[in-house]
Write a structure and sequence with these properties.
Elements lengths: L2 H6 L14 E7 L2 E6 L5 E3 L4 H5 L1 H5 L1 H5 L2 H7 L6 H10 L3 E6 L5 H9 L4 E6 L3 H9 L3 E3 L13 E7 L8 H11 E12 L4 H6 L12 E2 L2 H8 L5 E9 L3 H10 L6 H16 L4 H16 L5 E8 L2
Parallel strand pairs: 4-5, 4-7, 5-6, 7-8
Antiparallel strand pairs: 1-2, 2-3, 3-9, 8-11, 10-11
C-alpha cells in the first residue's frame, strides 16, 4: 500500500465509549457515516477518513482557517473565551495549565493577559502553522501529537479540551493520558457539541456541525459515562453553554452539505463584534435570557464537563 493510499483509506473503529463493535446505522451526510452503539448508545463516525485519524487534516487547514484574519481577530478578541476563563478560574485559581488542541494559542494568551503571574500555560496541537503563530505570541507549545509526547514527569493543575474531543478518533486514550498528567486535585475541563441541542433537533443532519471533522457525537449522558470510565476522576460540574440563533437561521435556509471554513470564520467575527458593541446591550440581555432557558431545558449548543482527579 502506498503512502497516499494510506492517507485516504477510511479507518474503521470501535465505539469510543465502550469499545464494542456492535453498532447500527444512525445517519449519513455526504461522506460522513454515523452509527449508534447498540451497547451504550454512543453515536460516532465509522469509518473515519485517515486524514482525521492522523491529524494531517488539521495541519493542512492551519493557514486557510486557523490563520485567516477573521478567525484570528475573533479568537484574540477579549470576549472570545469569557466562559472558558470563568470556568477555569472557578476551580483552578493558579498553577500549570495544559491546553490540548491549542491552535493559535488564543485561550492561553488571554489567560496570561487576564491573570498575569497566576498561571503558566502550555499548548499542544498538530497544526504546525497555528503553533508557529502561538509561539510568536509567547506561548510555550509542544509540537508532538499528544499521545506520543513524553512530558518528562511534568504535572499540571488543569488540562483543557475546548472543542477537541469531538475530533479525536481515540478520545479514551487522551483522557487516560490526561489523568497521568494531572496532579492530585487537578482539574480536566471538557467542552463538546451537544447532540441533543435545539439546533440539532430543528435541523438534523443539516446542522453545520454534523461534519466529517467531528467523529464523536456526545449527549449529556454519554459524555458523563465517558468521563466516569476512569476511577481516578470525579465530575464536579456538568452543564451546558452557548446558543447561536444565527447558525440555526442560516443552516435552515441553506441546507448545504458543508459550510465553508471562510464563512464560519466570517460569522464568528460578526458574532464576536456583536458581543463587544455597547449599543447591542439590550439584545445581549435578551440573548443571555434565551441561553439560560435553553441550558435549563438541556438544549444549549455545547456540553461542559469539569472533572477533578481524586488521587
Amino acid at each position: 500500500m502506498t503512502i497516499n493510499s494510506q492517507l485516504t483509506t477510511p479507518v474503521p473503529r470501535a465505539c469510543p465509549l465502550c469499545e464494542q463493535e456492535n453498532a447500527s446505522h444512525f445517519l449519513e451526510k455526504g461522506a460522513l457515516r454515523l452509527v449508534q452503539c447498540r451497547n451504550c448508545s454512543m453515536i460516532y463516525a465509522n469509518p473515519v477518513e485517515a486524514a482525521f485519524a492522523s491529524g494531517q487534516f488539521y495541519d493542512r487547514m492551519s493557514v486557510p482557517f486557523y490563520l485567516s484574519s477573521d478567525k484570528l481577530e475573533s479568537d484574540y478578541a477579549p470576549v472570545r473565551f469569557d466562559r472558558e476563563l470563568r470556568w477555569l478560574r472557578t476551580y483552578c485559581r493558579s498553577g500549570a495549565v495544559l491546553d490540548v488542541g491549542c491552535s493559535t494559542g488564543a485561550f492561553l494568551s488571554q489567560l496570561n493577559s487576564r491573570f498575569p503571574g497566576d498561571y503558566t500555560g502550555t499548548g499542544t496541537d498538530v497544526a504546525g502553522a497555528a503553533l508557529d503563530f502561538a509561539e510568536r505570541q509567547g506561548i510555550e507549545v509542544i509540537r508532538e501529537p499528544f499521545l506520543d509526547c513524553d512530558f518528562g514527569g511534568r504535572r499540571f493543575d488543569a488540562v483543557t479540551f475546548w472543542a477537541v474531543l469531538e475530533h479525536l478518533v481515540q478520545p479514551g486514550k487522551f483522557l487516560g493520558k490526561t489523568v497521568g498528567l494531572l496532579r492530585p486535585g487537578g482539574y480536566c475541563f471538557i467542552l463538546v457539541p451537544n447532540l441533543e441541542s435545539l439546533a440539532v433537533r430543528l435541523l438534523g443532519a443539516d446542522y453545520r456541525y454534523i461534519m466529517p471533522d467531528h467523529v464523536n457525537y456526545f449527549t449529556a449522558r454519554t459524555l458523563e459515562q465517558f468521563a466516569t470510565r476512569n476511577p481516578a476522576l470525579e465530575i464536579v460540574r456538568s452543564s451546558q453553554s452557548h446558543f447561536n440563533p444565527v447558525v440555526i437561521l442560516q443552516d435552515f435556509r441553506r441546507r448545504t452539505e458543508r459550510v465553508s471554513d471562510a464563512e464560519r470564520a466570517r460569522l464568528l467575527k460578526r458574532t464576536t463584534a456583536w458581543k463587544q458593541n455597547p449599543f447591542l446591550r439590550p439584545a445581549r440581555w435578551m440573548y443571555a435570557c434565551a441561553e439560560r432557558l435553553l441550558i435549563m431545558m438541556r438544549l444549549a449548543d455545547n456540553l461542559v464537563l469539569v472533572m477533578r482527579k481524586k488521587f
